[in-house]
C-alpha cells in the first residue's frame, strides 16, 4: 500500500505569504482623510518616559501603538505608519519620548462620532524650548509648519483635509513677564495667519493650557491663554496632569490622558 502523499507545505506557505503581502500592500496604500497639525514646544513634541538619564525608556502604551489607520508625515514629507517617538526627525536636538499625538489618534478613531473608515494623518511640527514669538508669520518654524501642512494635504491625493491644529506651547513664555503679557495677542495673530495662509478661514484650533513653565510667570501665561479670542477655538487644560521629575514635562500616562482630552474636544465639534 502506497503511503499517503505529504501535504504540499511549500504551496501553503507561499499562499500565506502572498496573502500577507497583499494585506501589507493595502495598508501601505492608505492615505489620510483627516489631517491634524501638531505644533508647539516640548510637551507637544513628547518627553513622556524621556526625562531620566538623557534617554527614552522605550515604553509604548497600547494607546500609542502603531495602527494602519494612523499615519505621520515624515521629515521627507511622505506619509508613513506613525509610531513613537512621533516627532523623531522633527523636534531636533532633543531626547524624544511619548507625546499626545498617538493617543489622540487612537481615541478619535474609537469614538462613535468619528467618520467611518477615517484614516488619521498626524503632521508633527513641534520644537522644544521655543517661545511663541518664534512661531510668528515668516519665522523658520512658521514656514516649516506651513510647508508640512500643505505637503500633507497634497500627499492625500484629494482624499484628505486639514481638520484641526493642536497647539501646546507657552512654557518658555513664562520666563519673561513681557512675553507672558504679550501671549494673548501673539496667539490670536498666529491663529489668523495660519488660517489665512492655509486658506481655511474657520480652521479648528485646539489650544492646550500649560501645566508647567520654565519661569515664574506660569499663572500669567495661563491667564493669557484663556483670554485668547477667536472663532472655532477650543481650550483643553493640562493643569493637574502628572508631571515628570524634571518639573516641566508631562509623564507618559499624562500624555495618554491629554491625547484623549484632545480627541474629546475635537469630537465635540462633530455634533
From TrEMBL:
<dbReference type="GO" id="GO:0019752">
    <property type="term" value="P:carboxylic acid metabolic process"/>
</dbReference>
<dbReference type="InterPro" id="IPR005181">
    <property type="entry name" value="SASA"/>
</dbReference>
<keyword id="KW-0732">Signal</keyword>
<dbReference type="InterPro" id="IPR036514">
    <property type="entry name" value="SGNH_hydro_sf"/>
</dbReference>
<feature type="domain" description="Sialate O-acetylesterase">
    <location>
        <begin position="34"/>
        <end position="267"/>
    </location>
</feature>
<feature type="signal peptide">
    <location>
        <begin position="1"/>
        <end position="28"/>
    </location>
</feature>
<dbReference type="GO" id="GO:0052689">
    <property type="term" value="F:carboxylic ester hydrolase activity"/>
</dbReference>
<dbReference type="Pfam" id="PF03629">
    <property type="entry name" value="SASA"/>
</dbReference>
<dbReference type="InterPro" id="IPR052940">
    <property type="entry name" value="Carb_Esterase_6"/>
</dbReference>
<protein>
    <recommendedName>
        <fullName>Sialate O-acetylesterase domain-containing protein</fullName>
    </recommendedName>
</protein>
<keyword id="KW-0378">Hydrolase</keyword>
Amino acid at each position: 500500500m502506497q503511503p499517503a502523499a505529504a501535504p504540499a507545505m511549500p504551496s501553503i506557505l507561499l499562499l500565506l505569504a502572498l496573502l500577507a503581502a497583499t494585506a501589507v500592500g493595502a495598508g501601505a496604500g492608505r492615505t489620510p482623510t483627516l489631517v491634524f497639525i501638531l505644533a508647539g514646544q516640548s510637551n507637544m513634541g513628547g518627553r513622556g518616559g524621556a526625562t531620566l538619564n538623557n534617554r527614552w525608556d522605550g515604553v509604548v502604551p497600547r494607546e500609542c501603538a502603531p495602527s494602519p489607520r494612523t499615519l505621520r508625515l515624515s521629515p521627507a514629507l511622505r506619509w508613513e505608519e506613525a509610531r513613537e517617538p512621533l516627532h523623531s526627525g522633527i523636534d531636533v536636538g532633543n531626547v524624544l519620548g511619548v507625546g499626545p499625538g498617538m493617543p489622540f489618534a487612537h481615541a478619535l478613531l474609537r469614538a462613535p462620532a468619528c467618520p467611518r473608515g477615517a484614516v488619521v494623518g498626524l503632521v508633527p511640527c513641534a520644537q522644544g524650548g521655543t517661545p511663541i514669538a518664534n512661531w510668528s508669520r515668516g519665522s523658520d518654524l512658521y514656514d516649516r509648519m506651513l510647508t508640512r501642512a500643505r505637503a500633507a494635504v497634497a500627499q492625500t491625493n484629494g482624499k484628505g483635509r486639514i481638520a484641526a491644529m493642536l497647539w501646546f506651547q507657552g512654557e518658555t513664555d513664562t520666563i519673561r513677564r513681557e512675553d507672558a503679557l504679550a501671549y494673548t495677542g501673539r496667539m490670536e495673530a498666529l491663529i489668523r495667519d495660519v488660517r489665512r495662509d492655509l486658506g481655511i478661514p474657520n480652521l479648528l484650533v485646539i489650544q492646550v493650557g500649560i501645566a508647567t513653565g520654565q519661569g515664574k510667570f506660569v499663572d500669567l501665561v495661563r491667564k493669557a491663554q484663556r483670554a485668547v479670542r477667536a472663532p472655532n477655538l477650543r481650550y483643553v487644560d493640562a493643569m493637574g496632569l502628572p508631571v515628570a521629575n524634571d518639573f516641566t514635562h508631562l509623564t507618559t500616562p499624562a500624555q495618554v490622558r491629554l491625547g484623549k482630552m484632545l480627541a474629546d474636544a475635537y469630537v465635540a465639534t462633530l455634533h
